[in-house]
Amino acid sequence: MDRRGDPLLPEDALASHPAPGAAPTRQYFRNLERLSANFALAGDVSMLFLGGDLKRKESLSGRLGDVMSQLYLAACVLKRWRDDGCQASDLPFVEWAVQDAQSRAQDAMYGLLRNFPVRPAAWLLRLLTFPWGRRFAAPNDQLGHRVARLMMEDSPARDRLTAGMFIWKDESDPVGRLEVALGLVQAAEQVEAKLRAASKGVPVTEHTPEARIAAAVRSGVISAREGETLTRYYALRRACIMVDDFPRDVGRHVEALPAQPAVLEPVMARKTA
User: Is 180 within a domain?
Assistant: First the structure.
């Protein structure tokens, strides 16, 4: 256990293998090694056949830059995970980020091969770099749901993800409002579960969230404190998602302002004379 009470991976997972990284990420290191070799080979072949023209062919050089940047990002993710002590609860973040970087690097390489002007060299490079075709898939929805769930929970994993960031937990600040709302998600979901269990088979008579909460408090399904928590959560959630909500008269006050004096008209008149 680490100082936050988060489970660590077994120490022998790191000590019994000479390859860098713990067992869950060792394959990612191998994939990055393979992609790095592909990138080096593609760069050498591009310089061999294009020379100085590679700089002028910005689409091709840009794709090489995309491969390098994705490899760098993936390496940073793996290093950060190891520096944090290989926390088991952080693995969904690591897996999603590295799989996304691998997939983007692979797409950039395929874009380079598809548009390489020297076609025989492109075919040979394709055979050497991806002999079995596309191997790296983008993160699936199941992994994305795990990441989303971790980001919605007030947990040590989420604290490590936002370490070093200044977050003002105030409802008047847009980011702070979101942080306060996220802090209420777990408690609000428990209250909502009570409401759903109590409403099974019962005809709906209240058609607004506020009315349903008030009716549940009166009937004793939830306590007054739980009702206040759910009401506050609903209000914060709505405030967070209404980012493009503007009053109907927005901008109309500008039309009502008096016309500004045309300061430049005399100057323009002299220029045209």
Answer: yes
Q: 62 CB contacts (<8 Å, ≥6 apart)?
A: none
Residue in this structure with the two tokens 């793996």, named with its chain if needed: 78
Do residue 108 and residue 209 come from a single domain?
Answer: no
Q: How many domains does the chain have?
A: 2
Over the chain (273 residues), what is each successive 10-residue block's mean pLDDT?
A: 47 44 84 94 91 86 94 95 90 95 96 93 92 92 93 84 82 84 88 87 76 89 92 90 74 59 53 54
Same domain, 183 and 143: no
pLDDT of residue 11: 43
Let me know: does 67 contact 137? Beta carbons within 8 Å. Answer: no
- Three-state SS for 61? helix
State how far the alpha carbon of 2 is from the alpha carbons of 5, 25, 40, 233, in Å.
Answer: 5, 20, 39, 32
Specify the pLDDT at position 16: 41
Give the residue numbers spanning the domain of 212: 174-241
Which residues have C-beta within 8 Å of that of residue 130, sequence separation ≥ 6? 38, 106, 109, 110
- Which phi and psi (to 5°) does residue 32 adopt? -65, -35
* Full-model pTM: 0.70
Shared domain for 16 and 111, answered yes or no, is yes
What pLDDT is recorded for position 140? Answer: 95
Same domain, 120 and 213: no
Distance (Å, whole) CA 183 – CA 188: 9
